[in-house]
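Mods, move this if it's the wrong board.
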Amino acid sequence: MLSHQPGARRAAGAASGVRRGLLAGALGAVLLLATACGGHDSGQGKSGSGSDQQASKAVVNVAPKDGATDVATSGALKISADQGRLTQVEVKDAKGTAVAGRISSDGTSWVPDSNLSTSTKYTVDAIAKDAQGRESAKHATFTTVVPKDGFIGFFTPDDGSTVGVGTEVSISFNRPIDNTKAVQNGIKVTASPSVPVVGHWFGNQRIDFRPEKYWAPGTKVTLSLRLNGVQGAPGVYGSQSKDVHFTIGRNQVSYVDAASHEMTVTQDGKTIKTIPISAGAPDHTTYNGQMVISEKDPVTRMDGSTVGFGGEYDIKDVPHAMRLTQSGTFIHGNYWGDTSVFGSENTSHGCVGLHDIRGGGDNGTPAAWFYDHSMIGDVVVVKNSNDKTVAPDNGFNGWNMPWSQWTAGQ
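Not the wrong board. Structure tokens:
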């Protein structure tokens, strides 16, 4: 029988422990209830500590209301404090990624630095203190709008590229943009050394950026796309958040004189080569104005039917081709023309032709030399042609628009 007494003592001890646990739990509940009754006001969070058990006078306000859905990605999230100052604000998405933002200098408000993402649940936790240092907190959740559709922007130049001084940063959108101001606010182009860079809309699906004058050689340029959550049209939102970096190379500008049939190539203002050319024939003249090389192809096909010339020509192997306009103006090699026309006669359908041989390559011809010494973004200026000045949006040729007009189209 004695062998059972230790077990009995253990059972008795366990019962006693249960009673002590129940008593402690009940006491804790009472203390918690007393603290809660004495320290909270309308769910606003923590009371003061120590002997001061009065509730904080600070009130944290969160818009939109807790549990809201279909919330706009811009302008809807507002956090403020009455009778106190915000000391901490944390807004996170469902993955725990924090939303960048800042508390105002007077501590009364907080706003996000950028648009929120669509179709995303966010959690808000904010704390404010009153004049006595007592804290008040607010917790809320909300979900942003689900878009009907999205838009994206296709940009040039490419990330990491080195380009000529005439380069324009161009973004073309896959659908019309109604809210051009909001979209433009989500795009920033900066340069080092710093220079003002301004955007200009051509219609509602393309915006180009450039400085007043050609870029300085060596300039580092950054395109920042912050279109995530930007509403471009009713129910249509962007999703891109990307930085694109490129560098401006040496300054090369080539001057084509259609009357003298000659091109002067300059670098940093100094002539490095003079090349005989053949511009557009009298019934197919070449545009005047500043044109920027936007593509380079060692060999390409040129079919007149694609640019309104019917079956007048279809050359499947045009060498050393560099595009100047979207409508089909190139400066390119010409192997089919007699060498005598270069420097003496205009014979093309609007392009600028340079003597070349079939097959292209590094063949020692003027066309091969110019191709090898040119890069995307270089400028070709045509003058003395019996034609109009090229339209600023025909290619990347906004340099033909006066700066006052360019900046007016922001």
